[in-house]
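Tutorial, part two.
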Amino acid sequence: MWPFIALALGQAAMNYFQGRAQGNAAEQASEQQQQGVREARAYAEPLYANAQRIAAEQLAAGQAGLAPYAQQGAQGLTALTALLGLPPTAAAAPAGPGDKTKIPGTYPVTAGAPLGAAGWLGPQADATGLKPLSAVSSLAPLLNPKGPPAATQSSYVTLRAPTGQTQPVPLDQVDFYLARGATRI
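Running the prediction step on this input gives:
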């Protein structure tokens, strides 16, 4: 019987020391893993910072390269709004780097509303916000420099825009332009 007790005590002592050795090994492995993470982070942080700096430089160079085109676009929109007889807008506040909704010199668009529903293209704009070319009376001088045909002269009224520009406007659009500051001549 004593040999069985001695064998059981030996087995218990061996299990204890093996468990303790495994615990120490796991602790050392955890410390080595933590040290590896710290070393990898110390190595990667300067590389990541450099990549961020390069990306910021490329973004700034790209935006600077596009600035003349954005300015030309804003000037083109200003000329188009003047051509269409729309009132000029005050220059919008400069947009921040993340703000894509404000473009200087443009009209704001009501979210979800077509341009025609917002009222900028006149009474004949359809649900898509588009207006038939024949209904854009401010383009008439470009399409027909001599003015409207003589047979329909009586269906036009000459209005003066707030900018001082005068032109004939179809009768069905007179109220629209009068509401926006035009005067009859």
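The chain has two domains: 1-72, 115-184. In part three we will examine how such features are distributed along the chain.
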